[in-house]
Amino acid sequence: MGDFVKREIYFLIKNPITYISIFLMVVIVAVTVKPYLEPYAHVRAENEPVEYDSEGDVDAGYIPTPVEEWYEVVLEEMEKSLINDIGLSTKQAENEINMMKRNKWKRDRIVDYLREEYSLKGGNSAFELYEYKHATYIEMNQYLEEAFSNRTFTKSFAYKYSEFLSLGSVLAAIILFVMLISRDMRKDIYSLLHTKPFTGKEYILGKLIAGVSVVYVAIVLLTFVVDIIAVKTGSELGLGSNFLDIWKIVAIYNLLSIILTGCVVIFIALLFKNILPVVPAMLIYFIYSNTGTEIAASGYIYILRPLRLFIRYPDLFATLTSPNGAVLNQCILCVASVLLIISSIILWERRRTI
Q: pLDDT class for 296, splitting at 50, 70, 90?
């Protein structure tokens, strides 16, 4: 089987499409992670007006609005609504807002009170609109120092890198495995292969090892370069860094996805004895792995579904962590890969007996 694997790897190495797919992976990673390496690139100048938004993170120069400032600006807007929409006098509106401040009401209490007393809806929306603030250099620096006081910069960066590496590497893996299988799916070649003196196990594992090896080499080289840059950036920012942070996350959440991608491509191709069904099937699988869902209370969020090829991390950069069920999902990917390998071997051997 060793010679077969070498031939398949050599086929990929000499094919320009291999380098195009790997280049695509590198571009996806480079473009998406670069803003997180430059948290001060988009900060607001001191003399510019303050801007607030319902979403934002350090990659765009935004930080969570400090709680006291958040309540202050929201209550100012609610005071205007009481005057303009409800018809209260300026004095009455001021008294209502001052009462809320004096009693230190929390968000839910404020929203419920205005809805019950004045039928004023949209309180939650008002809080959301001012949840994030376009920070100045000083504000960003203070936020980063506080946020990373108990964790390293590279730990947060590792999750974002893993997220976008998954997108690029899975896409590259799909292209490479389609290349490996497509040349064997012609009817004359497919029939001829079954007369060769190697088993279905050798064929399936040979194809899988060849494709996975090329993608893994690309991932290792890219991760090594990115890790050096991230460690250097974390040290320069004074936020702490650890060379192993990124490698740990990549090993846990990225490598199995490449194996499963290869298994799915091979299984579908053998099932239909044609490479064409692989394209729409993998497109659907890719979309399934990358989409979230709309929830009334939280808006559009990513939910970790079983068998997802990659994990999205939508939380704030400084608070990123593994979502619940992430490790379990990797175990499921492992089991699915084994089952698909067995199924593919059975399909191959059944063709030999026909």
A: very low
Q: What is the largest CA-CA distance in the chain?
A: 92
Question: Which residues is 301 bridged to in the sheet?
Answer: 293
Q: For residue 186, what are its two tokens? A: 């012609």
Contact 334, 256 (CB under 8 A): yes
Give the residue-averaged pLDDT of 133-139: 95
Q: Which residues contact 201 (CB under 8 A, 6 or more apart)?
A: 345
pLDDT tens digits, residue range 103-114? Answer: 989 999 999 998
Place of tokens 């690309």: 218
pLDDT band at 196 (very low <50, low <70, confident <90, very high): low
Q: Are 61 and 134 in contact (CB under 8 A)?
A: yes
Describe the chain by its helix, strand, coil percentages, rounded to 5.
70, 5, 25
List all residues 6 or more positions away from 336 whose beta carbon is below 8 Å from its beta carbon.
260, 263, 307
64 vs 184: CA distance, rounded Å: 54
pLDDT average, residue stretch 63-89? 90
Beta bridge partners of 133: 52, 63
CA nearest neighbour of 163 among 342, 326, 341, 337: 326
